[in-house]
Design brief:
The protein is an alpha/beta fold. It is built from 11 helices and 15 strands. It holds the Pfam family SBP_bac_3.
Length: about 280
């Protein structure tokens, strides 16, 4: 932490997934980037530098020291928590499907995809939707980034691309002439269990001081809906995505919610240093 403060700069890994973190006109931008500028700025670190990396290589790049944190809207999952430390939840996420205009296969969820062997699915390498597909027994092709998934649907190489609703709606809105549409966002169920989840920033496990300082500033933002939306709202985030404390990083890292515990059953309140 002191090293970042002394240099006034911190480096983050990102995967070019809008609206979380991406480059536009040569500048690093996005919802998580805006959040990071606010938080790291409050910690005395004014300069944020980005390293573009394939999503599946973000945590390996972090642990190898290529960057100081991961800014990618990354889902907090037990297997990831074994490799690195996550911040408190920064947003809640849901899944959606990008399909050809008119939704010819009438797909609404990945269960619909699993029920139709003629449907070709693509997911993003390392994304939670890829895990959902595996759990549902769906053969799917993986792509490196969101644009690749959209291109696969547009070019007919795939019938459906599964990703977070926030990301797919952002892409569709930014490409109004593309012959695609996005289904209504939903919470995927696996073996009857709703896959409630959240995303956060990732740090190396040894950077405990940096994580604690980050979480302290993050709490000031997520606890204030108006401030949260001032930072995240321009990127399509709404009050529905703001964490309310019912789901914690500790629970997500332990896999408790995946074992059937719902957010309503989870204890309220966020923790000071999770991950």
């Amino acid at each position: 932490m002191s090293q970042a403060q002394e240099s006034g700069s911190i480096t983050v890994g990102f995967a070019g997934e809008a609206p979380y973190s991406f480059e536009e006109g040569g500048e690093l931008t996005g919802a998580t980037v805006a959040l990071h500028r606010e938080i790291f700025g409050a910690l005395g670190v004014e300069e944020l530098e980005g390293v573009n990396t394939d999503f599946g290589s973000l945590i390996p790049g972090l642990t190898a020291g290529r960057f100081d944190a991961v800014s990618a809207g990354m889902s907090i999952l037990p297997e990831r928590c074994e490799q690195a430390s996550f911040s408190n939840p920064e947003f809640m996420y849901t899944t959606a499907l990008m399909v050809a205009e008119g939704n010819p296969y009438e797909l609404r969820t990945l269960d619909d995809v699993a029920a139709n062997p003629d449907v070709q699915l693509v997911t993003m390498t390392g994304a939670i939707e890829s895990s959902y597909a595996d759990s549902l027994g769906i053969d799917n092709n993986e792509v490196a980034g969101p644009q690749d998934g959209m291109d696969a649907v547009v070019n007919g190489r795939a019938d459906v691309f599964a990703l977070t609703g926030i990301s797919l709606n952002w892409m569709a809105d930014g490409n109004p002439d593309a012959p695609v549409e996005v289904t209504e966002s939903y919470v995927q169920e696996i073996d009857g269990v709703p896959q409630v989840g959240a995303g956060g920033t990732v740090f190396r496990t040894e950077d405990e001081q940096l994580l604690a300082a980050y979480n302290e500033e993050l709490e000031k933002i997520v606890s204030d809906e108006e401030r949260y939306l001032e930072i995240m709202g321009d990127f399509g985030f709404t009050a529905a995505e703001r964490p309310d404390g019912s789901v914690t990083t500790e629970q997500l890292c332990a896999g408790e919610l995946a074992e059937g515990e719902t957010p309503e059953a989870a204890p309220a309140g966020t923790e000071d240093s999770e991950g």
